[in-house]
Specification:
Among the domains are: 1-31; 86-141 and 219-277, no CATH class. 81% of the residues lie in helices and 0% in strands. The chain is built from 10 helices and no strands.
Length: 278
């Protein structure tokens, strides 16, 4: 299913839910079936744990609960990190690798970026740094996308368990005909609401969460590849101006760091160097 089809489906189902809520404000119990919820949610969750690693399933649940959080990697974050790379380049040009080590020691909390800086300070060739960083970035992307697969499997499973609930409800109805007519209503409720719960869980929870997580990881993948190139340029001892122009290729033209930023970065480093000398 394309992202546009998914978006349209989500909007339609959202409108349906809004209409049901508006209609059933005083009759919410019309749309509540504990049995249906247990069948759909319980079956989907159990299937997820049976078919995937526990850690990936728990991470998928965490993604659902954090769907509305602001993304970590934004355009401003990309621009900020390019500025940081250029700042390190000024340090490297002025004080060589020893100065760079002093300037970054204990100041890079991100494990991946710290690993990249360690490679630079170990004086590996730039092509080796690119190779090792790309291996790490690719492997990290694959690991972090595992919950996306879990969520998409849950989205495929939820409607199936909705149909299971429908079949159970129909069995209750058929067995109640001519014997206990009071059970027909409850059986019909289970049959109809289970299908509804399965669709809502798949289209309004699991698939949107999977797409949100995938977009987040793609942004992080792009960011880490950009930083990998920056570390390779540092290893080559490229001039700050060249680094800036090369790394600007990762940004939209309207977001490029301009000459005023270069002057600012140079002045900032000179002031830091003067403070350290004092």
């Amino acid at each position: 299913m394309s992202k546009y089809t998914l978006a349209i489906t989500t909007i339609i189902l959202g409108a349906i839910v809004a209409g049901l809520v508006a209609f059933g404000v005083l009759n919410y119990h019309y749309f509540l079936s504990i049995e249906g919820l247990v069948i759909v949610i319980g079956g989907t969750v159990v299937n997820a744990f049976m078919s995937s690693h526990k850690e990936d399933v728990l991470e998928a649940f965490s993604t659902v609960s954090n769907m509305l959080e602001k993304p970590e990697i934004t355009r401003d974050a990309l621009r900020r990190d390019i500025s940081q790379l250029i700042q390190w380049s000024y340090v490297l040009q002025a004080d060589d690798f020893l100065g760079l080590e002093k300037a970054t020691l204990g100041k890079i909390p991100d494990p991946l970026l710290r690993y990249g800086m360690d490679l630079v300070l170990t004086a590996y060739p730039a092509d080796k740094i690119r190779e090792m960083m790309h291996n790490v970035v690719d492997a990290e992307f694959e690991r972090r996308c595992a919950p996306v697969t879990v969520l998409r499997n849950m989205a495929a499973t939820a409607p199936a368990f909705g149909m299971v609930g429908t079949l159970i409800g129909m069995i209750i109805i058929l067995n109640s005909i001519g014997t206990d007519m009071a059970n027909i209503g409850s059986g019909l409720a289970v049959a109809m609401l289970s299908t509804l719960y399965g669709l809502l869980l798949a289209r309004l929870v699991c698939l949107p969460a999977a797409d949100k997580l995938l977009k987040k990881e793609e942004d992080l993948f792009f960011h880490n590849n950009m930083m990998s190139e920056g570390f390779a340029l540092l290893a080559e001892k490229q001039r700050p101006f060249y680094m800036q122009d090369k790394l600007n290729s990762f940004l939209q033209p309207s977001r490029h760091i301009n000459f005023d930023d270069r002057v600012h970065l140079s002045s900032r480093y000179q002031s830091v160097a003067a403070e350290n000398a004092a």
